[in-house]
Design a protein that fits this description.
With 306 residues, the chain is α/β, with parallel strands linked by helices. 30% of the residues lie in helices and 25% in strands. Strands 1, 2, 3, 4, 5, 6, 7, 8, 9, 10, 11 and 12 form a twelve-stranded mixed β-sheet that branches. Helix 1 crosses helix 3. The longest helix is centred in the C-terminal third of the chain and has 17 residues.
């Protein structure tokens, strides 16, 4: 898929090295089609890593996308340079008058905090309210999914006795859902979180539908009945080595961390972990783009939400 991004964004060189088609601004202006406007609210600390991972997931489609990167104004990132944020990111104040075909709200490593304690919670709730009328479909990831379920539907998160950490087998709970087209009956997904949401809270809410889950890791994908909100509790976008990085980071800090389940070959932390979820991840994002964004959004962008 041609993804139109800033010519100088570091992720561009990485993705081009993987033979992923990235369209620069010069070529995009000569194509007589309307690109889908996708905005990514990046709440992860390692923003450049997350940019690359998500853009890679958006690459497996013939649709042309134009990407806008959004960062909370009310929080100063400690792990991403101010120069990078200034060069490639915008704030909600600068874009709230615009309409977008799709939005992605990432996770954040703050799930053990109460939502109202998060520094940018008020700003995030304003953004989530804004999506109701300014975005055709919003895709929430991990903590972003828990935050969205809490804000939109009052679903509370619950603390886990230990971190849900590793690769887990999932199954389809509802047949014939467009988001799941092409999925295998069983598929693998990375999880890395200290909290969860109750299955009962989801299935008892008349506005939500649980479409995939795991016996071990619980609720995975939830879709609102109007199909405008997608909630994904795992990290399908993760690279093969992302859980390894998280594991050794916490281990080096002396934090209590178990080896990721079903991840290292023979649980040998010195062995290179394989990616066993890549095809599922690409299919998930391409299905979202096609069936929940492209097929649903109006051709005239200003008509989004009308």
């Amino acid at each position: 898929m041609p993804i139109k991004i800033d010519n100088n964004l570091p992720a561009k060189k990485i993705l081009q090295g993987e033979n992923i088609f990235i369209m620069d601004e010069n070529r995009a202006t000569h194509q007589d089609i309307r690109p889908l406007q996708i905005i990514i609210l990046n709440l992860m600390p390692l923003k450049q890593q997350t940019e690359t991972q998500i853009l890679r997931m958006l690459s497996n489609s013939p649709l042309q996308l134009e990407i806008t990167l959004l960062n909370p104004k009310t929080y100063q990132s400690k792990n991403t340079s101010a120069d990078h944020l200034l060069a490639f990111y915008t704030t909600f104040e600068e874009i709230k008058g615009r309409k977008f075909d799709g939005m992605i709200i990432t996770g954040a490593p703050i799930e053990q905090m109460d939502f109202e304690e998060v520094a940018y919670w008020k700003e995030l709730t304003e953004i989530m309210e804004w999506t109701k009328h300014n975005v055709t479909s919003t895709f929430h990831i991990c903590w972003g999914a828990q935050a969205g379920l809490y804000y939109h539907y009052g679903v509370k998160k619950e603390a886990l006795p230990q971190k849900m950490f590793g690769i887990f087998k999932h199954t389809i709970a509802v047949d014939h859902v467009p988001l799941l087209r092409g999925f295998d009956d069983e598929f693998l997904v990375p999880h890395s979180r200290h909290t969860t949401v109750s299955r009962e809270d989801i299935i008892n809410n008349p506005n939500l539908e649980l479409i995939t889950e795991s016996e071990e890791s619980g609720v995975y994908i939830v879709v609102s009945k109007d199909e405008k909100q997608i909630f994904v509790t795992g990290h399908s976008e993760y690279d093969a080595d992302t859980l390894m990085q998280e594991y050794f980071r916490d281990k080096d800090k002396g934090l209590p961390i178990e080896i990721p389940k079903n991840y290292f070959p023979n649980d040998n932390e010195k062995a290179k972990p394989p990616s066993t979820w890549r095809s599922h991840a690409h299919l998930l994002y391409s299905n979202w783009l096609n069936y929940y964004v492209y097929q649903m959004t109006p051709y005239i962008l200003d008509q989004v939400g009308e």
